[in-house]
Amino acid sequence: MSSFGKAFSSSIGKKLVVGITGLFLILFLIVHCFINSLIFLNDGGETFNLGAEFMAGNWPIRAGEIVLFLGLIIHIVQTARLTYENRKARPVKYAAYNGSANSKWYSRSMGLLGTLLLIFLIVHLANFWVVSRFTGIPTHDVNNRENLFAVMVETFQNPWIVLLYVLSMVSLCYHLLHGFASAFQTMGWNHKKYAKLIISVGIWYSIIISVLFAAMPIAIYTGLIN
Amino acid sequence: MNLTLKVWRQKNSKSAGKLVDYQVSDISPDMSFLEMFDVLNEQLINKGEEPIVFDHDCREGICGMCSMFINGRPHGPKQGITTCQLHMRSFKDGDTIVVEPWRAAAFPVIKDLATDRSSFDRIIASGGFISVNTGNAQDANALPIPKRQADAAFEAAACIACGACVATCKNASAMLFVSAKISQLALLPQGQPERYRRVQSMVAQMDAEGFGNCTNTRACEAECPKGISLENIARMNRDYYAAKFASEEEV
Ligand code: HEM
Ligand code: SF4
Ligand code: FES
After folding, report:
1. The complex's ipTM?
2. Spatial distance between the Cα atoms of A83 and A80, rounded to a whole number of angstroms
3. B160 C-alpha to ligand 3 centroid (Å)
4. How many folded domains does chain B comprise?
């Protein structure tokens, strides 16, 4: 095997891939959250639709979409593999195991939180991505732009969808509360000079992103935004 | 003190084991956990039953042998100590205490509570040393080492290879142990010539032994009797990337 082959099939190399794809998804969420937050301008979705049109009609962003899907798939495949290997590393389980004495529950539940996110992502992509890319957005707004905002408003009339979205954002928050700092640790960036900064940015990032995303379906369902 | 113990009994590495209930009475709160086991074993021997096999040696917290997973935690409920340093005053009269061996594919049970930790020895044998004789202790200032660096190496060298980190880790990962053994040499001048070979061969051996993959839960650091820090794992990861992606040293 080549040196790189060996590196990426080692435990540390596999984790590096999870960390890099995780951080890439974290960067993506910043852009995604910023554009979607344009609905909070409460202008009937005009600015949001402009943002959506920009994202759709821009080839570097289209190319980025492919990288994003690849990143997500690699993240999922790699973490599934790690989780499987980790189960195998302890064939006989403890009768008594007091995990909460030494670690956070969400750091021990990344597989569960990730699976919830995966279920959410399938629903989420079916709700919006499939519509905007394949089946077509049915209406246009006052500026004759494709009215993705209207699709959003319609989707979030269903309370079950709203509930799924809000609960999924709770999962996202906990996934990131562990994932953010964990990715830096995996990459070897645990240093007295930066540790505090990384931990606090991670906490703020996780909370802000999930609260903003969760606020969108709630605001639309309750009619605060229309 | 009167206590109920639920202890893992297993005939040998092949057979399946199970938890067996035992009662002990008149235990002094000043006894160590291992002394309480001595009392229990004497009871068993007097009754003609087979005593419980458990590892121990120094009984003063330096050899790392006394591996017991007590009520869901390695070395019991206290931080920064080994099982031999755990006193019965840490429990209450009438308590039920569950005692299991370290559980990991790479630490197979030999008998009862004793596990085979020679996977750690093989990791050390794969590179956890300096190949040339570095001579006697240096004259204090002959080899300049910054204080901060010397302290960090000393802290890493405190690892007693007990395996509590593996035992408590939900992934049975050995990253804390291996990173301590790599760091104690990577931080000192004598360790430099082999630094990038060592990290590659020791990580490869760790993986070959069947330890799990670290997910940074930090349980190891919290349970380590010697307070080995997660910073060592980050250092090992950095060295590993440098070795694999930058150095030309192939292992
Ligand atoms: C937008 C979505 C997601 C983001 C931003 C994200 C981010 C992250 C980050 C930063 C890590 C830490 C990496 C490291 O420690 O090196 C991580 C770990 C993990 N992710 Fe995700 N992830 C996402 C979606 C998913 C999905 C859909 C799954 C599974 C189906 C998943 C499963 C996991 C698992 C199992 C880990 C555990 C590895 C560990 O504990 O360190 N993630 N994720
Ligand atoms: S790192 Fe700590 S817990 Fe792990 S083997 Fe060394 S002393 Fe024991
Ligand atoms: S018997 Fe040596 S550390 Fe406990």
Report:
1. 0.92
2. 5
3. 9
4. 2
